[in-house]
Amino acid sequence: MAPPLSRRTLLQSAILAAAAPGVGAAVAPAASAATPAPPASWALQPFALQDVALGAGIFATKRKLMLDHARGYDVNRLLQVFRANAGLATLGAVAPGGWEGLDGEANGNLRGHYTGHFLTMLAQAYASTGEQVFADRVATVVGALSEVRAALRTDPKMLAVTGKWGGGLELVRGSYQYVDLPATVLNGASAITLSTWVKPTHDADWQRVFDFGDNTTRYMYLASRNASGVPRFAITTGGAGGEQGLNGTAALPLNQWSHLAVTLSGSTGTLYVNGTAVATNTAMTLTPAALGTLTHNWLGRSNYSGDPLYAGCYDEFNVWSRVLTQAEITSLQTSEAKLSSPGLGDLASYWFQATAGGTFPDASGRGLTATLKRTWGGPSHPGFLAACPETQFILLESMTGSDYTKVWAPYYTAHKILRGLLDAYLATDDARALDLASGLGDWMHSRLSVLSEATLQRMWGLFSSGEFGGIVEAIVDLHAFTGKAEHLALAKLFDLDSLIDACAANTDTLDGLHANQHIPIFTGLLRLYDATGETRYLTAAKNFWGMVVPHRMYGIGGTSTGEFWKARDAIGGTISATNAETCCAYNLLKLSRTLFFHEQNPAYMDYYERTLLNQVLGSKQDTADAEKPLVTYFIGLTPGHVRDYTPKEGTTCCEGTGMESATKYQDSVYFKAADGSALYVNLYSPSTLTWAEKGVTVTQTTAYPVEQGTTLTFGGSSAAFGLRLRVPSWATAGFRVTVNGSAVSGTPVAGSYFTVSRTWKSGDVVRVSVPFRLRVEKALDDPSLQTLFYGPVNLVARNPSTDYLQFGLYANAALSGDLLPSLAPVSGTSLHFTLNGTEFAPFFEGTEDPTHAYVRRSEPKAVFGTVDSGVANPAKPDGTTLLDEVWAAAPFASEAALVARVRTVVDAWVATGLLTSADGEKVVSTAAAASYVAA
């Protein structure tokens, strides 16, 4: 449970309400917090997640799978990388791995991002359901991150563990910690013994138990593992090529105590493991005396910067100015040094007993106090919070080219953490979360505000390394709570002027850009417009959206191939196994809804329905798994593609946004006019809206998209407002509305909103009918490559072939232009059809079936009402066929109207020499003789 929390005050500035989910509808938490008013520049406002309860249906089913994951995954695994970075105990947790671990892609440089996503998911889950388990988990994460920040702000402190004899010191992997010994520790000895107990916890090669040296030329080290995986001692004054060494014969076991000792005198060196001499070299000419006084005298760190730090534990480290005998070495195996025959080291002796700090007294009598340090120095600057060192951010400032193996998008990761903290605060009112978020904002401002404009522009223009995600949006939201001028100034420091200026001028420069690096920039620009009134931000965002939709959009709503954009209108030519990165869909949805708040262009919500119902739902596998979210990274659109729901190494960006998407499906079902004059119904989804200001509830009952329509039932108080129902752009088959059984006058227009204004009373029932038709959408650069839609539902062919399947659809087309009669429904399975023996199913079904999102349209003969004229279907140079031109005029009021259209098209084609007169007459007579489905 969370500790007592201070209430936050409602500040005057605005925050994006979509990121302010509030509290659960089912069980309201005791410390719920009011949500700030949305920006004055918004004509529309969203409802908080707790105001819209999902009803049974495909969205609730998908969400349940993700909620089970949110409940079941051990958050201490996520916190492991943060705690390790701060040198705190990791509670035995194993890091998630993949992108969220040290062994992941690019050395784990993105670690911490996934925890931010997970925190947002937990906050949204609590807001949506009110289940206390989610609030408790939020409190656990926030509390741990508070401890992490505090630890990063201080010099490292000893992490005490149970040692071989008493207390021991643990150097946690990922803590970047080592022990620094005074320069005189070796004292120029010509004879020496070094002895220690170690318990390694990781098997990386070249971890140093100790390394005394000046550089990579003059040094003496003992590695727990060499390239062959066995211990190695070496001494040199001539670099690696001049090493005189001793190699062990077997690897040290992990997570077990082992004793290591080295003796060196004259020409003989000996390496002992657990009291046994495993290597002797009688041709050694170097001793510490030859090295002189050394600058770097380290336990756990190498003089080679590329070597890993030692991960594991120490108990006792002793140095004697003589060679111990075999018997003395043996005695060290059965008792601590002070009770053994050689006693404590006379040059240095450290027991690593528990200490409140990071210094270790020397028991040898020489007073050589050792100090626990971090490789990146420290403490960190005030407010810094991350799962990696501050050096990631520092290095970015001097980079002139991208290299994500060195620096991987540190401000992108900072965004995920910041967003998660803000969402945690908004959902649970935990003041610690806001304090952490505000501190992070302060730290970023202190870091970036001193950089030159040229440096900032260079940084943000770097591929991957300079990526910063949606941090501008989050910082503007942060400013709404803190009111700090520095926070608003910080948001503007991320302006990438070359991109903003080009888009503001409606100049398309997207070809070759990384898609997801740039999409969230524009949602941030909209929020900057809200905060500053600078119109170039709004103009750039609107123009940018129009460069992607539809010009770089696949049928499912996704964009990008191999994460990048290609030339404008290149769709068919870019189809690959790496299309439609899931993060892109997530961020385009955020941009679309935010644009709609400013300007009520129905195209924004048409896009929202397309992408949410198809790509976003389809990116989540329909399988329960407590350990994995089971979300796609790419969605390949190549023939026969099988979706991969456990992408790459795991804990990817797309799994992160997938967790978020699945816990906020209801965020755009309803919007309200800022003046309260209208309620927008944007999506037809089973749900219950509580509009507190009006005292009204609206319950939407539907099985949409299985059902072709919805029913809205009003409850609560009477209230006057306009009910604005979205008429989808594809709804050309007749959109009908009744109120309490009576038809509403007016003519709904596809691609608009249909308004019903009245004083609504409890018990009022609105019935909306939205008939579906089967239609195709053609690839902009290849009209023969097409994807099928039944109403809002993208249908994909399930077939293992890796070649494009060829289908004709006009053979039994209805007078309405509906192509559905050419397909046969699958009995007992909604929205499943067959054509020529191939099954078509909704894209949103999260299966592992091989699918074809695009098929090759093939209409070789002029066929009407299933009657073949025997005449080849001719085509123009641009690929348009005679049948295309005929059916482009649908719907037809009657068979006669269709035949008249056929006659007009045939005559035109005969006149241009594309069709012979005789064949034209055959086509017309066949059309006249055929029978057609009317609807």
Structural notes for this entry:
With 935 residues, this protein is an alpha+beta fold. The protein is built from 21 helices and 39 strands. Strands 29, 30, 31, 32, 33, 34, 35, 36 and 37 form a nine-stranded mixed beta sheet that branches. Strands 3, 4, 6, 11, 12, 13, 15 and 16 form an eight-stranded antiparallel beta sheet that branches. A hairpin with an 8-residue loop joins strand 8 (219-223) and strand 9 (232-236). Helix 3 (113-129) packs antiparallel against helix 4 (132-152). The longest helix is centred in the N-terminal third of the chain and has 21 residues, at 132-152. The chain is elongated and about 110 Å long. The two termini are 59 Å apart.
Notable traits:
935 residues, alpha+beta, nine-stranded mixed β-sheet, eight-stranded antiparallel β-sheet, 39 strands, disordered N terminus
- What ranges have pLDDT less than 50 throughout 5 or more consecutive residues? 1-34
**Helix residue percentage:** 25-40%
Q: Which secondary-structure class do the elements indicate?
A: alpha+beta
Tally of extended strands?
39
Alpha-carbon Rg, integer: 34 Å
- Determine the N-to-C terminus distance: 59 Å
- Overall pLDDT confidence: 95
| Number of helices, where a helix is a run of at least 4 consecutive DSSP H or I residues | 21
| Bulk shape | elongated
> What fraction of residues sit in β-strands?
15-25%
Characterize the largest beta sheet: strand count, sense, and whether it forms a barrel.
Answer: 9 strands, mixed
